[in-house]
Fold this protein.
Amino acid sequence: MIGPVVHAEGLKRSKKNSIVYVGEDKLIGEIVQIQGNKTIIQVYEKTSGLGIGEPIQDLNRPLSLKLGPGLLGNIIDGVQRQLKGSGYLFIEKGMSGNPLPIKKQWHFIPEYENIKEIEIGEKFAELKYNTIEVKSKDKLNGGEILGYVQETDAIKHYILNPPNRQGVIKEINEGKFTIEDPIGHYTDGNPIMLYHYWSVRIPRPFQQRVIDTQPFITGQRVLDFLYPIIDGGTAMIPGGFGTGKTILEQTLAKFSSAHIAILTLCGERGNEIADVLAEFKQLNDPLTGKPMSERSIIIANTSNMPVAAREASIYSGMTLAEYFRDMGYKVAVTADSTSRWAEALREVSVRLEEVPGEKGYPSYLPKLIGRFYERAGKVKAQSNRIGSVTVIGAVSPPGGDFSDPISQYTLRYANALWGLDVNLARQRHYPAINFEISFTQYLNEILAYWDKYPDIGGNWRESRKVIVKILKDEEEIEKIVRLIGKDTLTEPQLGTLAAAELIRDGFLRQSAFSDIDGYCPIKKTYEMALTLQMTYEWITSAIRSGHTTKEIFEKEKSIFERVNRMKELENLKQISEIRNIVAEKLEAYRKRKA
Amino acid sequence: MNTGLESVTYQTVERIQGPLLFLNNIKRVLFEEMINIEMSNGEIRQGQVLQADPNLTIIQVFEGTELIEKDSVKVTFSQDVFKLGVAEAMLGRTMNGRGLPIDGQGEILPEAFHEVTGNPINPAERIKPGDFIETGISSIDMLNSLVLGQKLPIFSGAGLPTKEVAAQIATQARIKNQEADFAVIFGAMGITERDGRFFQRSFENAKISNLIFFSNYASDSIIERLLIPRIAMTIAEYLAFEKGYHSLVILTDILNYAEALREVSAAREEFPGRLGYPGYLYTDLATIYERVGRIISKKGSVTLFPVLTMPNDDITHPVPDLTGYITEGQIFLDRNLFNMGYYPPINPLPSLSRLMNAGIGKGKTRADHREIADQLYAFYAKGVQLRQLVAIAGVDSLSDKDRRFLKFTDEFEQRFIHQGQVRRTIENSLDLSWELLRMIPKDELTRIKKSVVDHYY
C-alpha cells in the first residue's frame, strides 16, 4: 500500500479495469495492472487506516456510469456518487451514494419527435414535426429512442435503448416510474429500464461524423469575433494562475450555444464549486430563461479529494456528454483543469513504478489527451439524431510557461487555442486573451458560414481583417515606443494606437459579471465591430486631411466616449445611431477629399 | 481502521535513512498507522507508516532518527492511525508539532479525537464565502478584499517585512455584525525563534486570548513540521464546525514545509518533480489548503493565510506556483516598494483575491467598490508601464495625459499603499480612492459607470 495504490494477491480471473471493493470499509478501486497472481489496484478513496490482509471483492465490471433521468442539476464526484443531498458534510471513507435519485418518480411517455436535429432556442419551438410512437413489436437497434421523461422544464430526457442492445419490444408503457421500475419488456423477457450502464473509458458508438459547420457561439466578443470555434469543435485555454481561466470556463458553460453544459471541475477549489452551484441555481440563462441548473451537470473532484477519482472524473464528464449527444443535443464540456488530471495520472504512474516520460508524466499521456479531445465532434447518433460535443479544456501550465508537456500535447489535438495572459489580467483586462499566441483553425469555415447571413455577418471578413491589423500594428508600434519613446511616432501611428486602445477597452474587454455585457449576442458583436472599423477609417481620413490625433480626440471627445461605451447598450439601434454619427463624420472627410 | 487487535512489537529494522526507518517482515500494518519507537536507552519516539508492505514497511519518525540503533530499536505498531485529541481548552495554549502542550500549564483533556488528515468537505455542502473581513489595510480591503472562509497566501521574499504584515492582518481583522468569536491558530513551521517571539509578542500586545500557537522552529524535527499544518487545520475545523468559532489559521513558512516534504521524498527515493520536489506536491498542499471554507448548516468558518517565501523572489518557483493554483488569490509583497520605504509593501498588480466580488458591494462595503477597484488597478498598471517608458525615453516624450498618470501613480503609492501600521476602515479607503481618482479627468474613468462617476466625482 502506497498512497492510492494497493497491491493485492490471490484475486482469480481478475480483468484489467474491473471495479473492486477494497477492505472492510468497501473503498472503491479499479484494477490497473495484473502481474502473475498480483493485482494492482488504484483506490478512489482515502486509504489511510487500511490494513494488510483485508479482503477485496471483485465486482467484475468496468468503471461505468448509470445513465438515466436524475442527472441534470446534480453534482456528482468522479465515480458518480451524488454529493447533493447525500447527508455527508465531509467525504468519508466508504461513503455510499446512489448514482441516480432512487425515490423520484418520472413520467415516461413512449414517443418522441421525428426530427433530425434539435435547434437552439426559439427556432425549435416554431418547428413542425410528427411524433413517433414507440409500441410493442417495434424492433429496436442499439441506441434508439424509446420515449422521454420531462426531466426539467428546460430539457426532455430521451430514454435510449442501450447502445449494444438489440431486441423486439413485447410491451412498453406510459406511466410514472422510479429509476428501478421496468417501463416494459423485450420479447426475450428482459426488462426495459429508464437507465443503462456505460463504461467511462469507452467512447459511445455512433453512426458517422457529420461535417456541417455551425459556429459555437460563446457570447464573448473576443472569442466569437477573433477566435471562433465550431459546434463540435475543441479549444484549449492555457493560463497561469490568476489569469481568469476558471471564470472564463464558467462563463462559457453558462452562455455558450449548447443545450447541456457539463462542468468537470477536476482538482480545483471547493469554494468555486459552491460558487457555481449557488449561481446556477439563481441564474436565468439567456437560452431557456430557466435556472442554469436545469440544463447542467457538475462533476466535482476538489483538489483534496482522492487523486484517483480525479483521474476518472474527466472520462465521466465526457461519457455524460456523449449520452446527451446521443439524444440529439448540443453539449458543451468544460474540463477545469486537464493539467490536474494529468498530474493525477502521473501520481498514480509513479506509485506503479512505471518508466517515466517527459517531466515524470507517463509516456502514454499524449495518447490519452488525443483520445480525450477526439471524443468531441458532431455526429449522427445511433438514435438517428444529430448531436454534438464541444470540448473546452483548461490547462494550468506550471509557472505560466506554455512549454510544459500538457500544453504542448494538447496543442496538437485541440483546434483552437485561447491563451490567457498574465499581463492583461494584471491590468484587469478580462477575458485576458493574448493576441499573439491565440489561434483558431476553424476560421475559414466560420467566415464562410457568416457569408450566408448578411444581416448578421455580411461584412465580418472585412471588419475582422481591419481590427486584427490594427492590433498587430499596435504591437509593432509599441515595440518602437519601448526603444525610442513616443516622440518619434508619426500621426498615422498615433492614430493606430488610439484606435487600438478603443478596440481593446471598448470591444475586447468584457466583464463576466456585468448584467448587460456578460453575454454579448452575435449581432451586437457584429454591430460593434462594424462601428469600430468605421471609427478607425474616420480617424485615418481625418489624419490624412492634416489633423493630429490629439486634436481629433479632444474635439470629438463625446463621440469617442460613446463608441467606447457601446457595450453598455442593450438596444442595437443605439449602436447603429452611434455608427451613423461616425459615418457622417467619415463622409464629411471623404467629400472634402473628393 | 482500528482492528481491535493488540499492538505488536518488531525488532526488524533493516535500514535507517534520513528521517525514515525501513522494516521487513511486518505481518500486520495499516496505511498511516501510528508507531511507537523504543530506543535502547529507554527513550520513546513516535512515527507513522508511509508505505505498508509486508516486505518493506517505511516509517517516518517524528523526532528524527538521530542516534537510533538499528538492531536494538523496538518498533511497536499501535493498530490505529494518528488522531489528535481536540478541545476548546487548547485556546490560549502553546503546543509542539504533535499537538501536546509545551507551555508548562498542564495537560489538556481531549473532548474528541480526530484524524489529522481530515476528510474533504463535501463540495455540495459548502456555502460560498461572502462575509467581508476588514483587515484595515487599504491595498487589501479596497483592491483584494478578503472574506471569511477564504485561503489567501502571502507571497514574500527574504528580508521583506512578512511577519509584520501577517501579524497586522491577524490582529486587526474585523467582521461587521458578527457575534461569533475569532480563534487564531498559528502554525510555525521551521521559522526562527526570533520570528516566533515576534509573533507571540504581537498577539499578546493585541490582547488576543483565543490563540493556539503550534511551534516548530528551524532547529526542530522536520517530520513534526509536516504534521503541524494538519494538526492546525484539524483543531481549526473542530472549533469552527463543532464550536461555532471563526478560525483564522496562519501557517508560516510553507516553503519550509515543502522542503521537509522534499527531504522525506528523497529519502524514499521517489521520482523527483520540479526542483526535486515530489510530483504530488500539488495534491499534498491541497489537502491542507482546501480544508478552509464554510458549511451550509454550520455557523463557524475556517480562513487560512499561508505565508511563504519565494526563493529569489521568483513567483514561478514550484511552491508559490502550486500554492497560487490552489488558493483563492495572493497578497504579493514587493521588493521595490519596500526599497522605496513603503509599508506595507503590497503590490496590488500581482495580488489578487478571487472571492472579492462575493464580499463587496451594496450592503457589504459600498456599491461603487468593484468599479473603483478596477479603475485604480487600470490606472496604476498604466502608470507603472509609463515609468518604464520614462526610464528609457525621459519624461519629455510624455503627453500631458501621461504625465497625469505618472503623478497619480506616485501619489497612489505614497498615500494609498504606504499607510503604515495605522488601521483604516473601508469607508476611509473608499474615500481616499475617490480623492486620488479626482486627479484624472472625469471622462477618462472608463471602468466606472457614468452614473457612479457623476455621483462621487
